[in-house]
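Folds abound. Consider this:
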Amino acid sequence: MTGDPLARTREATPASMAADRRKFLARLEELGIASVTVEHEPVFTVEQSRSLRETIPGAHTKNLFLTDRDGRVALVVAKDDTRVDIKSVASRLGFGRLSFGSPELLGTMLGVTPGSVTPFALINDAHARLRVVVDEALLAFAEVNCHPLENTATTRLATEDLLRFIRACGHEPLVIPVS
């Protein structure tokens, strides 16, 4: 695939049709996935969210929305303190050099804004246009925490249920060490 990835996805997920937190939580319920959501002040970075580790059990995540020059897009879901080797991830995916996707592309493809990137936004990628990479280190934890499509809350669920949710969104996650 070559060209501008945004041009190919403009009609795919209009902001007005993107799932919100309510729709996302309803989808978890449809799938029989138990979860707990905790409200908190907005957090935009891993550093800002460090205090949540003390009050919310389970692994905490960071999520990288990446694209290459050919317009291929990946979402990397990693443990919050993992240093992601983006070059290695690109190689494993067979992608070119990866860089962070633009806020406009993020909004178009996943219906979220920077600071709210989450694997739960895959609910908005109905055509499975991006590749999902999950940090193998997350599998050592029974539970995992991610934003529920907005950065004013954190949703915890079983790690296996996160993988089940990703698959229910039409994506087969590549589970690899990303550090």
